[in-house]
């Protein structure tokens, strides 16, 4: 159950907290991004309960495809299978681009400057987003090695990610400025709900936990624990980080590729920004 929980946290925490939070706050929700995460989290709880129930009762390799096949037949499962490919294709590319932004920040913090043509796609005027391409290739290779090795690597990455979040929180609490929350809901409830629809993307990944059904000892017990625990943990982390991010900087300034690191650089904490990146 612990491995499954770490797998869930590893899959959920990523571009959502480190990239989307700033962009959605700046363009749609303002400081009310906190409410957006709560709304999206509630929706995810119901989905997670459904996944946990199906993972425990149907078995097999799990996933929405497997459940649709068992419950609704081959044609519906075929459509959902392609939906999943589309979801993860978009999800993975977005996460890789977000990761690339933080690599650029990390390199800048230690005085290395990569040429712009190697940090931007042809659509942005460059040749290739090299860090984004490389991270996908490295992780694809790791996944090919096997489930046990991937699980160990993922657990290490989860601790690194949580450490990065702790660093951010430790620095941010000393720079809280309540004036930044004077207008808490600048875009109204429609902005909160649009924000919730967008930050729902930040939760994508917990459904992948159900695909570990065949590799999990006692899936009937461990999958529901892993899915629900990881979701609750991540929702709490998202709320804390989004609240602090909008308290230490005006929400209008957060529409950047790597908002967490950028804000710390503005606050003159290059070491913390470099560590997080």
Describe this structure in words.
It is a single chain. The chain is globular. The protein has eleven helices and no strands. It is mainly alpha-helical and 277 residues long. It has helices spanning 2-12, 15-29, 33-58, 63-72, 74-109, 130-145, 147-172, 188-199, 219-248, 259-266, 270-276.
Quick recap of the structure?
With 277 residues, this protein is an all-alpha fold. 71% of the residues lie in helices and 0% in strands.
Mean of the pLDDT scores?
A: 85
Oligomer: single chain
Radius of gyration: 19 Å
**How many individual helices?**
11
| Beta-strand residue percentage | under 5%
- What distance separates the N and C termini? 30 Å
**Low-confidence runs of at least 5 consecutive residues:** none
Give the topology string: H per helix, E per strand: HHHHHHHHHHH
Name the shape in a single word: globular
The total strand number stands at 0
**Class computed from helices, strands and strand pairing:** mainly alpha
What kind of sheet is the major sheet?
A: none
Query: Helical proportion?
Result: over 70%
